[in-house]
Specification:
Elements: H1 2-28, E1 32-44, E2 47-58, E3 64-75, E4 78-79, E5 83-89, E6 94-96, E7 101-106, E8 117-125, E9 131-138
Antiparallel strand pairs: 1-2, 2-6, 2-7, 3-5, 3-8, 4-7, 8-9
Length: 139
């Protein structure tokens, strides 16, 4: 009987430890929101061309430094830039890239259009100089 109690307590402690670890990881990650600011849209035949800027919002309570966005992959989208440097952002601040970029895709007449997405790798440093890397998918 005591062995069963010990095993149950052990299992509960292991589960609690895993939940706590996952929660701590979430506190570190996802401190930015990424979006586009559309400047111009044009349609040429079946192609849609978009001129845009990248927008980043620091949703944390600490400043973040040296923010850089790198295109890891583009699915069913052509993009004319590989990397955008955004600099430093104070807490709760939103910043736009100074650079513009074009991306384009073919319109689809089907009811199930192909999934279009750009996967960005976002790199930034905290106030202690620790480097963080996140992947953000924009569809």
């Amino acid at each position: 009987m005591n062995f069963k109690c010990v095993m149950i307590v052990f299992i509960i402690l292991c589960l609690f430890s895993e939940i706590k670890k996952a929660g701590a990881e979430e506190d570190i990650r996802h401190i930015i929101k990424l979006s586009y600011k559309i400047l111009e849209t044009s349609n040429i035949g079946e192609n849609v061309n978009i001129l845009a800027k990248l927008k980043v919002k620091n949703i944390s309570s600490e400043p973040i430094y040296g923010i850089k966005a790198i295109v890891l992959s583009a699915n069913n989208i052509a993009i004319d830039i590989n990397e955008i440097y955004l600099g430093d952002i104070d807490p709760k601040e939103t910043k736009e890239s100074t650079e513009t970029f074009n991306f384009s895709f073919k319109r689809s007449a089907s009811q199930d259009p192909p999934q279009r997405e750009i996967v960005w790798q976002i790199e930034y440093n905290d106030a202690n100089g620790n480097l963080f890397v996140e992947e953000v998918i924009l569809r």
